[in-house]
Amino acid sequence: MKNKMKHSVLITMLLMIATLFVTAFTVPSVQASASDNSLQQIKQKGYIVMGTAPDYPPYEFIGKDNGGSKVYGADIELGKAIAKDLGVKLKVKSMGFDSLLVALQTKKVDMVIAGMNETPERAKSVDFSKTYYSSGLSLVLNSADDKKIKSYKDLQGKTIGAQIGSVQYDAVKKGIKNINLKGMENINDLILALKSEKIDAIPLDTAVAEAYAAHNPGLKIIDAKMPGQESQNKIAFFKGATSLENAANKTIDKVNKDDLYTKKFVPAAAKHITNNKSQSQFETMWQYKNFFISGIEYTMIISVVSVFFGIILGVIFALMRLSHNWLLHSIAVCYIEFIRGTPQLVQIMFIYFGLGTIVNVPALTSGIIAISINSGAYVAEIIRGGINSISDGQSEAALSLGLSKKQSMQYIVLPQAFKNIWPALGNELVTLIKDSSLASVIGVGELMYQMRAVQADTYLGVAPIAVIMVIYFVITFTISRIMKHLEGKISHGTND
């Protein structure tokens, strides 16, 4: 019987893995082979979705807008120009730079404008427009090192930081030998690492380097002097979107003809870059209180909804795993072991990008689904442990009194099990609140996302981090106290 059960579990797990691979690899190929109606689809729905990573001033960054936040930048102005020429509205979707091409391939966005350069590797997955702006490569370093580092040749033996997935990362990796290269997703993190002397230099697009150096005293930029490393910014489109790409190229031709990017788009973006040099960090953080309040709202929405569905899933799969039905048991084991054996960040990205190829699920909903599913697996094991802690004599006594197995579980076992596992459930809720920060990778505006927004707009690295640390502590400490109070109430009620 045990061998049969193990065999069935193995078959079920293999089927689950096969389903994941079929979803991940067959759907994009179907999309690529479809006929090109990309421009027609944009005009039919009346808007075009632009994906970007808003930590790249003056190209794209997050600024204040009527108490809230909004993405500004020269690339945003270009996106508006393209949308205007197409006769549609522009919608901007923010996410991490290394997630942009995945979002494009899964059609979460219609185009990516993010100071992106074409590379042979990227060209295999997406199509690129004409160049709309060219810029050089500079190095950002601490002013104290300007005599030690004059060009890229002086970087040998040093620690260099670069944004993961950027052409600067590839340029340094291929062009400079004997260096310790550290990749980070966010440029603000790189600047923070540079100022704290964790790294010696950062290769950046010249315009971006100038923006960060201007707002960070103690930093300096120099010409990298690397041959053939001029940045050629282009727009990315999903494979086969020829009609949409051609329409965008017409706008780019007009922009290049009159040099609108440099003369109009960059100055328009510069008006929204915050100047907070005359203010204390406390005053600056207070001005962004609405950002943090919005982050708290999203964090609590994700946490409350996810813990609700997580407990429901936990109860269902705990009972399934304890079931004597081999099929139900096998499904529960596969679910629990697979979810617990894969990183939650990967699960969030798969729900949003992977399943998004079949059903277009919004970022917030995707985050809630992924976190609920993840929480359900852990809660299931907590509940199973609680049920197993109840002696068999309890169930036997209930059956002898005429209760059914279902009634025994509902009225006798589960209430006692929940009393035993209440502290563990409280810990799971606290963990879930902190894990909600992972949803920022797909652009959900929770606390971590808002912290990044404040960093990008103020050029302050540590202060926004300190603020959300305090906020997270206040939330989790308050919930811990509430759970402790309820635990005392439950224990007192049981003793009575």
UniProtKB/TrEMBL annotation:
The chain crosses the membrane at residues 298-320, 350-373, 458-479. The keyword Cell membrane applies. It is found in: Cell membrane. Residues 1-24 form the signal peptide. One of its GO terms (molecular function) is transmembrane transporter activity. Keywords: Amino-acid transport, Cell membrane, Membrane, Signal, Transmembrane, Transmembrane helix, Transport. One of its GO terms (cellular component) is ATP-binding cassette (ABC) transporter complex. It is a multi-pass membrane protein. One of its GO terms (biological process) is amino acid transport. InterPro entries: AA_ABC_transptr_permease_3TM, ArtM/GltK/GlnP/TcyL/YhdX-like, MetI-like, MetI-like_sf, Solute-binding_3/MltF_N. Coiled coil: none annotated. Belongs to the binding-protein-dependent transport system permease family. HisMQ subfamily. This is Amino acid ABC superfamily ATP binding cassette transporter, membrane protein. The gene is glnP.
